[in-house]
Amino acid sequence: MKKVDVILGLQWGDEGKGKVVDVLTPSYQVVARFQGGPNAGHTLEFNGEKYVLRSIPSGIFQGGKTNIIGNGVVLDPVLFREEAEGLAASGHDLRAQLCISKKAHLILPTHRALDAAYEAAKGSAKIGTTGKGIGPTYTDKISRTGIRVGDLLHPDFRAIYDRAKARHEAVLRSLDYACDLSELEARWFEAAEYLKQFRLIDSEYEINNALAEDRSVLAEGAQGTLLDVDFGSYPFVTSSNTVCAGACTGLGVAPNRIGEVYGIFKAYCTRVGSGPFPTELFDETGDALRSLGHEFGAVTGRERRCGWLDLVALKYAIMVDGVTQLIMMKSDVMNDFETIRVATAYEIDGERTERFPYSVEGRIDPVYREFEGWKCDLRQAKSYDEFPPQFKTYVEFIERETGVPVKIISVGPDRSETVVR
Length: 421
Ligand code: IMP
Description:
The longest helix is centred in the middle third of the chain and has 18 residues, at 157-174. It is built from 11 helices and 20 strands. By secondary structure, the chain is an alpha/beta fold. Helices cover 30% and strands 22% of the residues.
């Protein structure tokens, strides 16, 4: 029986999962998203075109695959429709390739309003969410008041919707948050009808049957491990389990059915929104990473905060995810750097530690190791042997420190700019 391979971001999201899933999908028959929602923005570039996927799995571009939106995902019909119609307009046949779990939860217009209201109420302590209603939708799921995709088929759906809406409106009133959702609501109901043309399934059966029939399955994570609701830098996290175990609960796959775990990281770090970021750079090197790496949010357009690679955090992510292969992205961004730094430990209140701390609120001074820059264009390399020695030293240091091989190195946004070892 086949196993499910999982691909995950190991930092604060935006590691470049879209591109790698697209590179990996030719060898998989099923690609499934297991958590998150339209807070994600998976960017793919090929044949000179750029696409951003939010809720639809990245396997959609390959043709002939089964793409599944799993039960662990939260789905906004309006944003889903925009995304699906955009793909259909560029010639991708979605109906034959995409199915959606009936157990995935629906993001309502009032969830988006609640997201904004909670953020406004937090003031300077705000999380800096993507504003897509993610937190309030997962809150309803856990408090057993959520609405699922399968409920759309219920004859009394309008009553189910109105009950949830009334509950949300009471909270919005208590937060003094005024908004007019009538236009969005009308579009929401049209989009909910549109959603029904897709195959609405019990994705746990679909996936386990695929495994039993020896079909290969890739589970595609969204966000990153350091945004996990349990293990990330809480409370500055997203509201789902972005770790590998999230693929089990978000798809209905047993832990012993997990195979390879691909962990994807950038050769430096970025973060959007608030929250601790020990290796953040506030100088011209941070600015260079941002402009050379085009570090602006795919969903919100926000500037990403940039800093050096953090091995303390990376090793922590590898541990909780059980990563078996590493994939390194965007090293080409540092092509012209004289020196490159990597944090190998933290100093907190004068004490050195290699552990990712419970709370990263106070002052953390990273302990850095410095490397000579490679000062050449990595994008020209077609194989690992063609990389300069300074770059190989960097890669092999990461492998030694983490104990996990770096199997794929991406040196540019296009599918073709990928070195596999
Ligand atoms: P939410 O997921 O919209 O509730 O946002 C919670 C936190 O996760 C915020 O700091 C967001 O910036 C961050 N976040 C959510 N989705 C992504 C993503 O796809 N990439 C990077 N950061 C994300």
